[in-house]
Amino acid sequence: MMIVAVRGADGQAALGRAMGFRLRPGRKLMVRFSGRQWPEVAKGANPGGHLALTVVEPASYRGYQFKGPIEAVGPAGPAEEAAARSYMEASGGELGRLGVAANLIAQWFCLEDLLGVEFEPLQIFSQTPGPGAGGIVAL
Amino acid sequence: MTLGLSQLKDCFEGIIPSIVATVDTDGVPNASYLSQVFFVDAEHVALSNQFFSKTAANVRATGRATLLAVDGRTGVQYHFHLTFERAIHDGGLFARMAADLKAISSQHGMENLMALKSADLYRVDAITPVYQPVPAEEKVDDRQPSIGGRLAAAAAIVAEISASSDPDAMLDLALDRLTTDLGWNNVMMLAPDASGTRMAILASRGYPEESVGAEIRLGEGVIGISAAARQPVRINDVSRGNRMASAVSASMPEYDRQRTIAMPGLAAPQSQIAVPMVAFGELMGIVFAESAERFFFSCEDEGLLVMLGAQIAALLHAAEDGREDVSPAQTKPAVAALSKSFRVRHYDFDDSLFIDDQYIIKGVPGRLLFLFLKSYTDGARTLFTNRELRLDPRLRLPDFKDNLETRLILLRRRLDEKNAPVRLSRPGRGLVGLELAGTPILNSE
Q1: Does residue B284 have a pLDDT over 80?
Q2: Nearest CA in chain A to B29
Q3: For chain B, what is the HEC assignment?
Q4: 23-52 of A, contacting B, C-beta below 8 A
Q5: What stretch of H or E contains A20?
Q6: What is the C-alpha to C-alpha distance for residues A114 and A4, in angstroms, rounded to an integer?
Q7: What separation in angstroms does the CA of B10 have from each of B14, B40, B70, B146, B261?
């Protein structure tokens, strides 16, 4: 599962679920999310601001957080929508195998008004539960 | 309509983890998964602070956090906008959250990694529902009785229990009513052993016949954690493969295996609840229930079990201090000649007792039974008073809080369960009668 967080327009943290990400040239990441489902994130995600992307493997609780400045924001094209759909199927399938009911999973993925935010992950933190959580992962 | 916290209790069941996001003073965001979001009251939640130090640092700096919470039944998501009030390091809320966290983390084999640093109390300023990509499924609470009905049923059980003067019968009454009136099919009551390091089953419903005397260590499983912390523990998503460890394991030495009663339990429980029964500051026992259904026990069920547990604890406590109905005529009943005999082996080192090579019990109840049988073979005694038992140096009962009555209840039930040739009766308050179906031939090692 993936969580995207930014500073919202009101100055407080805004967060939502991401629909996967893609590696971009120059060690950049492009993360997708639904502007319809997460309008506060859409309003807060602007070039010059910062973004945090948390990625967790549900079966093992292994997790990482990527942080860095936002470089570009825009509507995701059909290729990104197809990639988001694949992510939804793979991630939803994994949750289903872990015993999460389908009606629950259906609430957590949304393709409407899909946006892409490109950012430069300057820091990576471990978020696996335990004493090492919060530690910086060497790049 | 404004959403209230009280309407969103299914967000606090721990089924689907919540996520907390904060920003630092430079506007750099941080998001962390949370082990626990605890409903405190209609305006406050508490978040578990274990090791998300960045969240703690940001919140201390800005005073604000945004939570993404998920209704565990429907998957519907909510944003909670929070203002930090204070970090709590001790007291009831902290103890309750620490016990819950221990129960959750022990399911995942991480109990040593996830100690609670503080319970961070937040005021909920606003709750906004997240857009639903598909209409949420309606919640159907088809359990019978309904929550209101369950409260009424619990009140009736409490009233009936408080009218009871026999603690032994009261346990049966409570378990039967929980089963029939509330529809809880797997319930047990446990009491601490003399060392205070284990809980032993006094009575149960919905498990294989032989379970009285089965033990679980303090701190182990939902029961042991609840007993150690003296806090209710409720889990609605017991992970597969992480159910209560059986007290019997293949690696145990043979002499231990012979002297252990297997801890019963559902093969695949989804929901478990354990509530301590405390009276006058003393842990009298634990009432435990489990179900193969998810979300089986609500916070209202926990509330009613707390009330019921307090009532049972008060009665057990009163029974320990009880008066005795003694008259001299009762102390020397006639003993009929017995044609059959049975062999009793008693081991001094752990007070384990076997009848015709079958393990019966150990510890204080084993010592008690051997004393009864010895008094019979030495002087044909079949009636004893709690008072003389408390004073008998051979029993080595503690001077204070011996819980003799509870141990007698356990012993009586174990003998019944084993269909043993010796049984205990309670001819009057504070009295124990010995009923024999044969002559005991004693052997102590």
Answers
A1: yes
A2: A6
A3: CCCCHHHHHHHHCCCCCCEEEEECCCCCEEEEECCCEEEEECCEEEEEECCCHHHHHHHHHHCEEEEEEECCCCCCEEEEEEEEEEEECCCHHHHHHHHHHHHHHHHCCCCCCCCCCEEEEEEEEEEEECCCCCCCCCCCCCCCCCHHHHHHHHHHHHHHHHCCCCHHHHHHHHHHHHHHHHCCCEEEEEEECCCCCEEEEEEEECCCCCCCCCEEECCCHHHHHHHHHCCCEEECCCCCCCCCCCCCCCCCCHHHHHCCCCCCCCCCCCEEEEEEEEECCEEEEEEEEEECCCCCCCHHHHHHHHHHHHHHHHHHHHHHCCCCCCCHHHHCCCCCCCCCEEEEEEECCCCEEEECCEEEECHHHHHHHHHHHHHHHHHCCCEEEHHHHHHCHHHCCCCCCCCHHHHHHHHHHHHHHCCCCEEEECCCCCEEEEEECCEEEEEEC
A4: 34, 36-40, 49-52
A5: strand A13-24
A6: 14
A7: 9, 14, 8, 16, 37
Cα–Cα nearest to B191, from B320, B300, B303: B320
Contacts of B68 in chain A (CB under 8 A): 3, 15-16
Question: Least CB-CB distance to A15: which of B21, B72, B108?
Answer: B21
pLDDT tens, residue by residue, B91-141: 989 998 888 888 877 766 665 556 788 999 999 999 999 999 999 888 776
Task: Answer whether A15 sits within 8 Å of B29, measured CB to CB.
Answer: yes
Contact A7/B77, CB-based, under 8 Å? Answer: no
Cβ-defined contact of A104 to B16 (cutoff 8 Å): yes
| Mean predicted confidence (pLDDT) in B377-395 | 91
Chain A residue with the nearest C-alpha to that of B112: A130
Provide the pLDDT for residue B244. 37
User: Which of residues 90 through 119 in chain A touch B, CB cutoff 8 A?
Assistant: 99-101, 103-112
CB contact under 8 A, A65 and B30: yes
8 Å CB contact of B28 and A50:
yes
pLDDT, position A76:
94
Task: Specify the pLDDT at position B335.
Answer: 58
The whole-number average pLDDT for the span B375-391 is 92
A61 touches chain B (CB under 8 A): yes
Q: A31-45, A87-101, B135-149, B378-392 — which one is most confidently predicted on average? A: A31-45
What does the DSSP 8-state code read for residue A136? Answer: B
Interhelix angle B299-320/B167-182, rounded to 10 degrees, is: 170
pTM higher than the cut 0.95: no
Interface test with A, best of B64, B73, B131 (most A CBs within 10 A): B131
